[in-house]
Amino acid sequence: MSDGRLSVFKTYKLYVGGKFPRSESGRVYEVTDPKGKWLANAPQSSRKDARDAVVAARKAFGGWAGATAYNRGQILYRVAEMLEGRREQFAREVADAEGLSKSKAAAVVDAAVDRWVWYAGWTDKIAQIAGGANPVAGPYFNLSTPEPTGVVAVLAPQESSFLGLVSVLAPVIATGNTAVVVASADAPLPALSLGEVLATSDLPGGVVNILSGRTAELALPLASHQDVNAIDLTGAAPDAGLAKELETAAADNLKRVLRPQHVDGEDGAGGTDWTADPGTRRLTAFLETKTVWHPTGALGASGSSY
Amino acid sequence: MPTTAPAFADATASDSALRRFLHGLPGVDAVGLEARAAALGTRSIKTTAKAYAIDLAISMIDLTTLEGADTPGKVRALAAKAVNPDPTDRTTPRTAAVCVYPDMAATAVAALAGSGVKVASVATAFPAGRAALDVKLADVRDAVAAGADEIDMVIDRGAFLAGRYLKVYEEILAVKAECGSARLKVIFETGELSTYDNIRRASWLGMLAGADFIKTSTGKVATNATPANTLLMLEAVRDFREQTGVQIGVKPAGGIRTSKDAIKFLVLVNETAGEDWLDNHWFRFGASSLLNDLLMQRQKLSTGRYSGPDYVTVD
Question: Which residue of B has its CA nearest to A252?
């Protein structure tokens, strides 16, 4: 440092249950930029960290799923506000992590904040497009309403450490699910910093839990975990064998599985364009439809009693 | 069994003799006690040892429901769970007992007939113990008549804290006399005794009065069983057997919710009292939610997959 000040190194931590623990295993691994320059040590989570994260996510589920959609939207918007205030930090971390120029990294962060706001707006609108009144041949009101699935394990994309992460995480929690996120293995730092933003945004602890480490090591216990209700395999895209193994493990308790896909719907392991319009596919992937039949009373000679 | 071990017959001769004896017990080194309990809690128990510990812990549980809202249906459901904790795995051991209020004891006895699972009933105006002696004794008689195999009594903490040790002692004697063949567990409510010295005194008082078990707490106050106060009581039963040859059981109750915690207690038992106590005749856990966590851990060990609360019963 030119002014003779000692540098203050940051110890990156996991984000589990609203707290910032180190890995239970005590392990860390070196995170470098694409050219191999050391950036920081990140915690290398073990399957026990994954288990703890699932417990935290399950604990948070009732409160988050039960919150009004309006309230969830407000909290997610608050997250975007906090992100906005930290744009420079994230731009720097994204530039380091992905080897982007400063201006490109700034554009990526702006896109991520906009994406977050976009999903925040969806919280109280998704029910209108994914549910509604069904026409039935009987004296009933028949209403379908989308409900969150539960605890969703999210394997964040490997290549897009921040915009990609936001694009897979925000739709999961917008609809009332809670998430256990496995950050990009080689570029986990923006994800771990996102945990700090979430912790200061009124988001209840445990709604989002962020783990860093080797994707394969963490993904398998999550995919076979009996208390995880769905899994997003985006981060397993580069390894088709792993993705298949995870899908098989997930079948055991009938998890919802979101396969790695391009935004345009084409299956494959190639790069996804995270800047494209995401549509509602990721919002609806982790919803379940509850349908209620409500009797309107017998139809008399004069027709409906209504 | 003699109600008072002969070696200590003098100690209980009068109120002043009893006070002299209890206050003559060595003071507890609080820092050392807590450090010892914490140190023993760091043991790593894995694989086959863990499987053994989980099964042992399940077999030591007094599966408990002590709520104002208890119904016969709930007691029967709990009894079914005690007999067959994990319906998907018949190798799971049964719990030691089901613990209920006296008016539910008959329901529990009927539901558990022939299963080998015992029925424990709290009595003596549980949990406060604030009632006249004959009311308490009637409570005990009720439970024994209903067929309870074990009686969990509470001591009169008010009298104990006021220093009227002989009153507490005589009350335990009277309750013991009503128990007949039922084993008597004496609850000290350690969270209300304020000091470790008092817990040590209460332990000795209970053992002198003929308790078959000494039990930490009711589960109804803020501080229940902790590793430190359980360690202290384990030391007391160990010392008591050394001096009198009489073995007495220990039951921590309340606040033990995870397998990890339960295994820590088992380590305390093994390292303090010894292997003789690693049996549900001599050591129990008073718990309800602990069983589900043990079952989930057991499922994890047998399948390799993490289980979840959807795979155990809600009680």
Answer: B305
